[in-house]
Amino acid sequence: MCILSTIYYMQPGSTGSNFLSAHKGKFGGGTEITFLTAYNFYLGVGYNFSQYEVEDASMAANAEHTNINAFFGKIYYKIPITEKFSINPAVMAGQIELRQFTGSKGYGTQEGWFIGPGIDAQYDLSKWVAIMAGARYNFITTTTQANAQYHDYFAKQNQFNIYAGLRIGLNK
Q: Once rounded to an integer, what is the mean pLDDT over residues 52-63?
């Protein structure tokens, strides 16, 4: 059994022609707990938060910013390159929530799910501490009530995140 804790800073982004593309990624962060490992596979859960600033209010329902909360499960495979350096391809899936705000006034919440691939590079500083950096791409689907012509624009998002942080644990 292996227990790892990961904490990271994240720079969020978006791609495609959808509601999230009317935003610019501002900042984000997250944490993960890995609780099971076997044959270089690691299984865990995580949470991340990201905030986007609206660049085109006419395309983003007139809000100033959107916060995204994501709770997910993750499985990754550790590919050792050297004794201290590894590449870790991953797949994540989970629940997501988008909340729109202007100042402290909330305009609504969209809930849904996401799935996406990711990859990170890890360098072990010691037996218990490693630094890591990587990228993730999320395919997001939310429940929304919109005119059929605009449904996919508001319900299907694409998110690209770059992150870096620390991984701390035992028996990595």
A: 74
